[in-house]
Amino acid sequence: MILWHNPRCSKSRQALALIESHGHRPKIRAYLHDAPSEDEIRGVLASLRLAPIGMMRRSEKRFAELGLSAQSEPDTLIAAMAENPILIERPILIVGSRAAIGRPVENLLPLLTD
What we know:
By secondary structure, the protein is α+β, with helices and mostly antiparallel strands. It has one domain: 3-Layer(aba) Sandwich (Glutaredoxin), CATH 3.40.30.10. 38% of the residues lie in helices and 12% in strands. A 4-stranded mixed beta sheet has the order 2-1-3-4, with helices on one face. The longest helix has 12 residues, at 10-21. It starts with a strand and ends with a helix. Keywords: Oxidoreductase.
């Protein structure tokens, strides 16, 4: 169980509290400091069953600065997330081959109760 976590984000802190309240101690990945590779991002996208745009924080200033949009090529979006991890939506919980974005944090419950 791995949590891609930003301790400065209230949703990320809520997610960690929820996970811990279910008796789990996830491995914390401070993804802003330990940026995932493009291959890791692809793997998480497959687990999430999302297109790259679905895992991105489109309201981040950097998204606009890079000229990204929902119409950008998937490989471009993945590269942008690897180079600018602030663009990755958070928190993301990964359990085996499954993953969920904790927005809202209740999205994580199926991974905690199975």
